[in-house]
Amino acid sequence: MKKLIRRLAKVMDSSQYEPLDAANKRVRRRVRVPVGHVPVFVGEEMERFTVRAELLGRPAFVELLRRSAMEYGYDQVGVLRIPCSAHLFRLLLQTADADI
Q1: Cα–Cα distances in Å, from 47 out to 44, 67, 84, 89, 98?
Q2: Which of 42, 59, 82, 96 could form a disulfide with 89 if both were Cys (CB 3.0 to 4.6 A apart)?
Q3: Is the pLDDT of residue 14 over 60?
């Protein structure tokens, strides 16, 4: 887990993140990620979330990270991708926030 968090810390500036504007043109801008958070892309639509790093150790997130490694491998470049629907991921985040 420590190795994964160190790896994720390298992409926390999310400089490789290029959001799409309303006209579907690529817009290059830096998006700051708060300290102690990790940027992730979720689902087929690659919706961007910032997740508190402490949540990555919870069983549900560990399972998502395992599935991510199985689908995309450990050599992902840039922001971490999670193979889960954005709706389900939002529910998971709400549940995790309620537990704290």
Answers
A1: 8, 17, 10, 10, 22
A2: 42
A3: no
Provide, rounded to the nearest whole percent, the portion of the chain with pLDDT above 70: 68
Q: Looking up tokens 């102690």, which residue turns up?
A: 36
Separation of alpha carbons 46 and 57, rounded Å: 22
Question: How is residue 62 written in tokens?
Answer: 């560990």
Q: What is the pLDDT of residue 48?
A: 93
Can you give the residue ranges of every domain in the chain?
A: 2-99
- C-alpha 39/C-alpha 37 separation (Å) is 7
Among residues 30, 33, 31, the alpha carbon closest in space to that of 12 is found at 33
CB 52 within 8 A of CB 93: no
Q: Does pTM surpass 0.70?
A: no
In this prediction, residue 96 has a pLDDT band, given cuts at 50, 70 and 90, of confident
